[in-house]
Amino acid sequence: MIRVATNGVELACEAFGDPSDQAILLIPGLGTQMIRWTAPFCLALAARGYHVIRFDNRDAGCSTHISHRTAPDFGELAAALMAGRTPDVPYTLHDMAADALGLLDVLSIDRAHVVGRSMGGMIAQIMAYEHPERVASLTSIMSSTGNPSLPSPAPDAMAMMTKPAPNSVSDEAAYLAHGLAFARRIAGSRYPFDEAAARRLIIEETRRAQDRSGFGRQIAAIAVSGDRRRRLATVSAPTLVIHGSDDPLFPPACGEDTAASIPAAEFMLVEGMGHDLPPQLYGAVVEAIDRTTRRRP
Hints:
The chain has about 300 residues and is of the alpha/beta class.
């Protein structure tokens, strides 16, 4: 792992495969770290002939945490948006897209195939329409367009995601139970939930870094991002939209809306997949990404 300076922050990143191959940039989701793009998944992409880069977004993992800015209160944020006001937030998804583009600059990568999951899909979408010359293809996984008419997350799943977690130092057992309960809730119905693997991932993320306020700042960036459909209609890169039929945070209509908003986008609905990417699906997802990168614009 290395850290590179760009756009006023330092981003932790790691690469797999031959640097002379076409680049694939993997963008993680809300409050998660680059290790959610697991090493086996990255190696499977690299085996297809790609230089795979994963990184921690700002305010996550080993990248810069914007600790000098207080995370907005969720209630105040929602009230401002309901009143039609744009609240002051520490940064936006556009800033995070600029981070990713800056990372490519530092790595001397002119164009990359960009793959994002959840919030990372939103960041990838922004990159594709604001900097089309830099995005060779777009894959948006378990994400959405910001369309306000789309179905809301399941209330219980949203509550579990936003409620304060127990302190991981003073009560590690309660913290792990909290994380495992949420991981189980967002998992799909078709693939067995691997509690041991989820536990290892939670522990590894906690050891790398933990900052609940960073989660709050990232969710504020999502909240003010607005409706991207008009801009998505200008995307010219080959596009793949992957979504799970069992996603409780972004119901399938969110993926359908994303694909419908982007010209010639392929929509891949995965039966039994939730808001996660189980190892059983690595082969199918890697195959679909590889197919998309080879499509002509």
